[in-house]
Amino acid sequence: MRSATVVGLLLDLAAIAALAYGLYFRRHHRRDLLFAYVALNVGIFAVVSLLQAQRVDLAVGFGLFGVLSIIRLRSNEITQGEIAYYFVAIALGLVNGIAADWPLTALFLDAVLLGVMYIADHPRLLEGTRHQLVTLDRVHSDPRSLVADLENRLRVPVLRWEVTEVDYVRELMVVNVRYKDSPARLGAAR
Question: What is the 3-class SS of the chain, one letter each residue?
Answer without folding.
Answer: CCHHHHHHHHHHHHHHHHHHHHHHHHHHCCHHHHHHHHHHHHHHHHHHHHHHHHCCCHHHHHHHHHHHHHCCCCCCCCCHHHHHHHHHHHHHHHHHHHHHHCHHHHHHHHHHHHHHHHHHCCCCCCCCEEEEEEEECCCCCCHHHHHHHHHHHHCCCEEEEEEEEEECCCCEEEEEEEEECCHHHHHHHC
